[in-house]
Design a protein that fits this description.
The protein has one domain (2-257). By secondary structure, the chain is mainly α. It has helices at residues 10-30, 34-43, 48-72, 78-99, 104-123, 138-158, 163-174, 179-204, 209-233, 239-257. Helix 6 (138-158) runs antiparallel to helix 7 (163-174).
Length: 259
């Protein structure tokens, strides 16, 4: 299976395809798909910086299916999107450039240390709230949103997992969007921050393009099914599955980089 990259067996590629589907499904509903993808790539033998770059190319293209579903169902708040996307692009590019200065072993330990942060972001309770765009303070919309998206974008470029959940929380508590609107709008912010980081990883040559093809297709399928489920049922159905997966993956990464 040299076609997909060094030491990539059929079983490893198949397992990564399942991970990509699960990550797309979970990410489209509640965010946190990177919490599955990044550890999976590292466990498959990819160097940490390559794992982060690979997560970006899969997530960037895969999330298009969720974006399509949310736009089709008119759940995206466009005024927030136009003020936040440039900040997400710049923040994530700077974050990705920063992580490339570390050696691979250090990056692996950074990822292991930051995974609990991403998990906590995914599971902070999100209360139901609704807001009309007419009641939003323009200063929050045009200053608060770009500032928040820039900081989260930097985190996305530097690490990534949990970014979707972080964005949902920011929109939910900062602008008091209901959860579906927050999830839908966050997808475009996440897409922009993924693009910014992806450019940095492309320039540095940290991507395996042929391996990305089947994983992007599976991630697209997961995003499509997950976003449809989110519109119908909401995000609660994936939280238990995500927590179990993260505990197992954190244990595996701890064994790899610590023990």
């Amino acid at each position: 299976m040299e076609f997909f990259g060094p030491e990539m067996t059929l079983w490893i590629v198949s397992a990564l395809m399942l991970s990509a589907f699960a990550a797309g499904f979970i990410d489209s509903v509640a965010g946190g798909g990177g919490l599955i993808l990044v550890p999976s790539f590292i466990l498959a033998g990819l160097p940490p910086q390559v794992a982060l770059g690979q997560e970006k190319i899969v997530s960037t293209l895969g999330t298009l299916a969720a974006i399509r579903n949310f736009i089709k169902n008119k759940k995206v708040v466009w005024r927030a999107v136009t003020s936040g996307i440039p900040a997400g692009l710049i923040g994530s590019y700077i974050g990705a450039e920063a992580i490339l200065y570390f050696d691979p072993d250090t990056v692996g330990k950074i990822i292991l240390a930051m995974l609990p942060i991403g998990i906590i972001l995914s599971f902070i309770p999100k209360r139901e709230a609704e807001n009309s765009l007419q009641t939003i303070n323009p200063r929050i919309l045009y200053l608060g949103v770009p500032a928040a998206v820039f900081v989260i974008g930097f985190y996305d470029g530097f690490f990534g997992p949990g970014t979707g959940s972080f964005l949902i929380l920011a929109l939910h508590y900062l602008l008091r969007f209901d959860l579906i609107a927050a999830s839908a709008t966050s997808k475009l912010f996440n897409f922009s921050s993924n693009i910014g980081a992806l450019i940095a990883f492309m320039i540095s040559g940290k991507l395996l393009y042929m391996l990305a093809i089947p994983l992007v297709l599976m991630n697209l399928l997961g995003n499509h099914i997950g976003s449809g489920s989110a519109l119908k049922y909401g995000p609660k159905m994936v939280r238990t599955t995500l927590s179990v997966s993260m505990i197992l993956l954190m244990g595996s990464l701890g064994y790899k980089f610590v023990l």
